[in-house]
Design a protein that fits this description.
The complex is a heterodimer of chains A (about 400) and B (about 260). Chain A folds into 3 domains: about 110 residues, Butyryl-Coa Dehydrogenase, subunit A, domain 1 (Orthogonal Bundle); about 110 residues, Butyryl-CoA Dehydrogenase, subunit A, domain 2, CATH 2.40.110.10; about 160 residues, Butyryl-CoA Dehydrogenase, subunit A, domain 3, CATH 1.20.140. Chain A is about 50% helix and about 15% strand. Chain A has a 4-stranded mixed β-sheet. Chain A has a 4-stranded antiparallel β-sheet with strand order 2-3-7-6, covered by helices on one side. Chain A has a two-stranded antiparallel sheet with strand order 9-10. In chain A, a hairpin with a 2-residue loop joins β2 and β3. Chain B is α/β, with parallel strands linked by helices. Chain B has one domain: 3-Layer(aba) Sandwich (Rossmann fold). Chain B has 7 helices and 13 strands. In chain B, α2 links the parallel β6 and β7. The longest helix of chain B is centred in the N-terminal third of the chain and has 16 residues. Chain B starts with a strand and ends with a helix. The chains are: A alpha+beta (about 400), B alpha/beta (about 260). At the A-B interface, α1 of A face α5 of B.
């Protein structure tokens, strides 16, 4: 078993760490306070190739592996969750789905510009009455000749007002039983007639990020934009989550590390009873737990990444990483605020932002409750992975790094 | 046509540097690329983008120094060379210059050599001037902008920032330049550069490769030991007052009293 990272992975991690730290962190707080997306994030990630980090070079990406994607997400969320969310939806939920499920034509039309950072991508599954129960979604897609007519509204969509492309899920057969068999996936673009978007304001966290809704009113989508087969949408949606949750889990390790690093610094600077608070055992205990949570979360993430590199199904392993890492990021953020005392309660320090951000990640991309049901069902034998028509794409350095 | 840029790893600017009782210095746990060199490397890569030149990034030092070279490759330098020999273990700046000048001659077609303004750890730049002297080339120090560069006509014009003000200087090539932070916005590595750097095998040129003898690089200056700076004693005083005006007046009075103003 090899726990070492390659020089390539470490250098990529360092690069993204410096970019996020130098270019975004200094101004992050003012955008978080304004509840507005930081305007420099997308251009920065696009120009530096981060948006296509683990897409093959032949499809406009940088050809790095799934582990590097996790390291990048950790570094982005070390600064702020809103940076990592971009990778979750653009890379994890959308681009990797196109790589796995898209036709060659779809890859050329959508994946290539996304990997190059020329177009931004989102993912739209959730609706007002379809969150943890996505099979309950109400959006419809009615086929008429060579087009589908899409109607419905999607909610809590990251980058809703910023993305150019979306993978959306709608029912081609609203009466199908079981319900999930009636869902189909489509690629829609912002410029299609009948597509409108809006922002959600005043969220608890990820305030420097973009979250909103998409309204589809008689949107005509050509059949070439259908992703996968009719009725295959639910399986595609779930396979997207295998990658999205991976980026969320990796990001959460960045949040835990942020809590740990900031707490270590503060505990050495802050004096009570004549000594730095780092000398007090109850503070040490909190620091120790943060370290433990970080290590365990990271190991779970790296295991999922290894499976992905092998092209092996990783639904359970990714889900347990997501569940654990995000739950521990909430705990770490609570402890970090506690260590910072009253200062931690104010936004003079970053830890209150970590806490607000962390709380989102135990809800989105499969709440902690859904993750627990999933783990239990695997353990009880109620759930098994069935073969997919398009299995996850393994990382083959030769194929991923060559031009064509 | 060839541009060479020199670099090295230096302690992190945020590192706590300590000296033990026997005068040995601990530079902290983490080394970073000499901050000034980021500008020199970026400038070399910018020159490469504008002219059809090859860029070689070079360092003098043991294996640990390779990281600076990899950083240079990741940003866009074409190749890297590490200069090292056990005889250089305690080299001084003149030995450094001797080795670098020999390596530049070995490359053959070098027109321009770039350095960051100084080495951040030793706060010295004499190795730069010594390298120029060893090569017998013009030395253009403290350059804030390369205003014109013509490899065909073998000329360069630069703006230098000196204590006396800005100065525009033209020189023939080849030349040695040390750059200031004003010269550019440092580039970050690219992913393609990172992949190239990670795969690169960096050649090491020893004294024999450079046609030098141990006597030629024997240190004439030697560091015998380091000492901690004396601890500074100080105290803080908060000036109270009802208005800014009153506080300012009290502050000025105190500063006059202490003969600071």
């Amino acid at each position: 078993m090899d726990f070492s990272l390659t020089e390539e992975q470490l250098m990529a991690q360092e690069m993204v760490r410096e970019l996020a730290h130098d270019k975004i962190y200094p101004t992050l707080k003012e955008w978080d306070r304004k509840h507005q997306p930081h305007p420099d994030v997308l251009p920065l990630l696009a120009e530096n190739g981060v948006l296509g980090i683990n897409i093959p070079v032949r499809y406009g990406g940088q050809g790095f592996d799934y582990i590097t994607l996790a390291l990048v997400c950790e570094e982005l969320e070390r600064v702020d969750a809103s940076l990592r969310v971009v990778m979750s939806v653009h890379a994890g939920l959308n681009s990797l789905a196109l790589l796995q499920w898209g036709t060659e034509d779809q890859k050329q039309r959508f994946l290539v510009p996304q990997a190059r950072g020329e177009k931004i991508a989102g993912y739209a599954l959730t609706e007002a009455e379809a969150g943890s129960d996505p099979a309950n979604l109400r959006s419809t897609a009615r086929r008429e000749g060579d087009i589908y007519i899409l109607n419905g509204e999607k909610m809590w969509i990251s980058l809703a007002t910023l993305a150019d492309h979306f993978i959306v899920f709608a029912k081609t057969d609203p009466h199908a039983q079981p319900r999930h068999k009636g869902i189909t996936a489509f690629i829609i673009t912002r410029d299609m007639k009948g597509v409108s978007t809006y922002d959600e304001k005043h969220k608890l966290g990820v305030r420097a990020g973009s979250t909103g809704g998409i309204v589809m009113q008689d949107v005509e989508v050509p059949v070439e934009n259908r992703l996968g087969e009719e009725g295959e949408g639910f399986y595609i949606a779930m396979s997207c989550l295998d990658n999205g949750r991976y980026t969320v889990a990796a990001g959460a390790t960045g949040c835990i590390r942020a809590c740990l690093e900031d707490s270590v610094k503060y505990a050495k600077e802050r004096y009570t009873f004549g000594v730095p608070i780092a000398h007090h055992q109850l503070i040490k205990q909190k620091i120790a737990y943060m370290q433990q949570w970080y290590d365990a979360a990271k190991l779970l993430v790296l295991r999922a990444g290894w499976l992905k590199n092998q092209g092996m199904r990783n639904t359970r392993e990714t889900a347990v990483a997501k569940w654990f890492a995000t739950e521990m990021s909430v705990k770490a953020a609570l402890e970090a605020v506690q260590i910072h005392g009253a200062y931690g309660f104010s936004d003079e320090y970053d830890v209150e932002r970590y806490l607000r951000n962390a709380k989102g990640a135990v809800i989105y991309e499969g709440s902690s409750e859904i993750q627990q049901l999933l783990q239990a069902d695997y353990a009880l034998g109620y759930r098994q992975d069935r073969p997919l028509r398009c299995e996850p794409v393994p990382y083959d350095p030769e194929y991923w790094q060559s031009e064509a | 046509m060839h541009v060479v840029v020199l670099t090295k790893m230096t302690p992190d600017t945020e590192a706590t540097v300590t000296v033990n009782a026997s005068g040995q210095v601990h530079w902290g746990d983490k080394l970073v690329i000499n901050p000034w060199d980021e500008y020199a490397i970026t400038e070399a890569v910018l020159i490469k983008g504008a002219h059809n030149v090859q860029v070689t990034v070079m360092t003098v030092g043991p294996e640990a120094q390779s990281e600076a070279l990899k950083h240079g490759l990741a940003i866009g330098c074409d190749q890297a060379v590490r200069l090292w020999d056990s005889a250089l273990e305690k080299h001084d700046s003149l030995a450094y210059a001797t080795v670098v000048a020999a390596a530049i001659r070995k490359l053959g077609d070098v027109d321009l050599v770039l350095f960051g303004k100084e080495m951040a750890d030793l706060a010295t730049d004499q190795h730069i001037f010594q390298t120029a002297r060893k090569l017998g080339w013009n030395m253009l120090g403290f350059v804030a902008k390369i205003e014109a560069l013509d490899f065909a006509a073998r000329t360069v014009r630069v703006r230098r920032l000196t204590d006396r003000g800005a100065e525009v200087v033209a020189s023939r090539l080849p030349a040695v330049i040390s750059v200031l932070k004003d010269i550019n916005e440092p580039k970050y590595p690219t992913f393609i550069g990172i992949r190239k750097a990670a795969k690169a095998e960096v050649p090491v040129w020893g004294l024999a490769d450079l046609g030098l003898s141990a006597a030629e690089v024997a240190p004439r200056a030697q560091v015998l030991g380091y000492r901690e700076l004396p601890k500074r004693e100080g105290s803080a005083e908060i000036i109270e007052g009802a208005t800014a005006q009153e506080k300012a007046e009290k502050l000025v009075a105190r500063l006059l009293e202490e003969k600071i103003l």
